[in-house]
Specification:
Layout lengths: L1 H4 L5 H28 L6 H14 L6 H19 L2 H24 L17 H21 L7 H12 L3 H13 L8 H26 L1 E8 L2 H10 L6 E6 L6 E9 L1 H14 L3 E8 L23
Antiparallel strand pairs: 1-3, 1-4, 2-3
Helix pairs in contact: 2-5, 2-6, 3-4, 4-5, 4-7, 6-9, 7-8, 8-9
Length: about 325
């Protein structure tokens, strides 16, 4: 029992709990203000819940969308726990179960009726604008949650399973699972709205890949300089990053030099370039973006920012 409760006393647990709660609060806003009023069925469990709710209500069985979301997610959570892992499953249990109540919370905080223009049926009063707003906001929420090994539940669980076992990009996985769910909308929506939903699901996958790549982006910097030792010490002592040294030979001059290579965050790269400029090191520098880093990478590294001549060593 003590081992089970031990994570509750860690900063990591409470930080990730806050991130998950904030991420789902944003996702619930996207659902309440853009998805539900437009009656679009994007490839998500929320979209599937809209279909199920409409069919049940038509059959005389009154049920809220938020309740259907909880029921469907409960089934998928069992799959998440078994097929993906206990950490992902436990986090997704929390996020999935609070989505429905948070949709209801937005309804109490700021009812959409108070925001609609006269005669409007949705917030943007245009299915394409509703689609874009929903997809962009949801993709941002999904990216944040995936970065801490969590998800919004539902479709994300199916996408994570595809990602793990078929090694597809997470955005592609979301699109595959989502388009399959979109097809269920033929039961309640005209062909045009279903096509809009399929396009929205495809955009969701693209946006998710873009946000994920942006969140994980690092700079791979290569520096050839006679002052490589000072640059190496700055990377190690001030930026608290590792680096590699390579002996290179100039193809034209035939002279041997040393090349320093390092993976840095955007802020760290800016600090390094500032350091090199301030000290007027003669350097040849190339830099490129890296979207994925595997192995030892410490995201908590705190570089010492240069603020004036006194900061130089």
């Amino acid at each position: 029992m003590t081992n089970f409760l031990k994570p509750l006393g860690t900063w990591k647990f409470w930080k990730e709990l806050f991130i998950m709660t904030a991420g789902m609060f944003v996702a619930a806003a996207a659902v309440y203000y853009f998805l539900l009023p437009s009656k679009l069925v994007i490839g998500s469990i929320t979209g599937l819940s809209v279909v199920v709710t409409n069919l049940l209500n038509a059959a005389g069985i009154g049920i809220r969308v938020s309740n259907v979301i909880v029921i469907i997610n409960a089934v998928l959570l069992v799959l998440a726990w078994i097929l993906i892992g206990s950490e992902f499953g436990a986090k997704t249990v929390y996020t999935a179960l609070i989505l429905g109540p948070m949709v209801d919370l937005w309804e109490k905080i700021l009812p959409i009726e108070s925001l609609l223009e006269p005669g409007a049926t949705s917030l943007m009063n245009d299915p394409w604008f509703d689609l874009l707003c929903f997809v962009l906001i949801l993709s941002l929420s999904q990216t944040i949650l995936f970065s801490i090994n969590a998800s919004t539940g539902g479709l994300d669980i199916l996408a994570k399973i595809i990602n793990k076992y078929f090694h597809a990009d997470i955005g592609t996985s979301v699109s595959i699972a989502g388009i399959a769910i979109c097809c269920t909308a033929f039961a309640i929506n005209p062909f045009r709205l279903v096509v809009i939903g399929i396009i929205g699901t495809w955009i969701n996958g693209i946006a998710l890949d873009y946000f994920t790549a942006s969140l994980n982006r690092r700079k791979r910097v290569c520096i050839i300089s006679k002052d490589y030792e000072k640059i190496r010490r700055y990377i190690l002592d001030n930026l608290h990053r590792g680096c590699s040294l390579y002996e290179v030979t100039g193809g034209y001059s035939g002279e041997k030099s040393m090349e320093v290579q390092a993976l840095l965050s955007q802020t760290e790269f800016a600090d390094l370039m500032e350091y090199i400029r301030r000290n007027e090191f003669g350097s040849f520098i190339t830099a490129g973006n890296v979207s994925e880093v595997y192995g030892q990478w410490n995201p908590k590294s705190k570089p010492v920012r240069l603020r004036g001549p006194k900061s130089q060593k």
